[in-house]
Amino acid sequence: MTHNTPLSPRPLHDLSGGGRPRVMTTAQLRSHGVSTAETNEQCRAGGPWQQLLPGVVLLHPGPPTSEERLHAALMYAARERGTGVPAQPGAVRPHAPAYPEVMITGLAALTLHGFSSTPPLPSLDAIDVLVPRLRRLRSTGCARIVRTPAMPDPEQVTGVPVAPVARALADAVAGLADAGIVRRLLTEAVRGGHCDPAAVVRELNQARLLSRPHVVDAVDSLLAEGRARAEDRLYRMVREYGLPDPVWNVDLRLPGGPYLGGLDAYWPDHAVAVELDTRAPRQDDDALWSEYARKREHLERLGITVVHITPRKLRDSPEQQATVIRTALMASADREPAAYVVVLPR
Known about the structure:
alpha+beta, Endonuclease, Chain A, five-stranded mixed sheet, three-stranded antiparallel sheet, 18% strand, elongated
């Protein structure tokens, strides 16, 4: 018997041919009439098949393709407890996911998302697979198991479930000690428009990675990168939507009194300010956020309207943000005059 010969009344070529990844679980093979003894015979040394992972068989003798390694790792991780059978499209539940509660994460996921600073799939020794924390699985072969108490919603990329960029990035960073590589990955995530800095830092914080000095340094660069991009979008929004020119990047003080805080844009004649929120949650940021809230409340008690804008809003709905600012400027004529403040360059 050869790997090209049908082994049961339900031939294998309908699943292993036609450009499909030629990899199946032993349970799937049994459903096609291939006994365990026959599978073992086919996977003998020099045989036409090979066992790629426990319970997962590669249906050809050569090295697996990157796609076959991805599917093999998912099949290994998605095996149902006690049966070893992953759910498959078109089975009992036709709309069920092919690989329930598992997804590709880490460097492999970032490569699938289109990162240029990650290694190509063939050069990765292992494929990271995210699974629920209580699953009884061990890393083996090309499958490296990553556990989590809360599974994110996967994204479908080239036909496989992949962790969202921020989560995949945190899982990748967890295994990296090179500060330069970590910095490049985080910077590409922002520059490439894959995700916002806040989402990245939130995942790094939840993974308890912000205690590592090289990660903290990379995060500081990431936040600076995010602020620079947000400021550029703010300048562009003011220009493109015809808002009056503000004074940019200023500090406010009461005459002979205390420092009131810094602002990204301020219209003195209207007492309207814009503050970009480019900060992200950090383990030690509770006091910082409280101070930010106190500053905003103090300015508003002085009659200064503070418009709070996030980088995401500037990116996704600049016209709406311009309308909010324009409305605040127009409404200034109907408000009580604001307290006099001193405006200084930041």
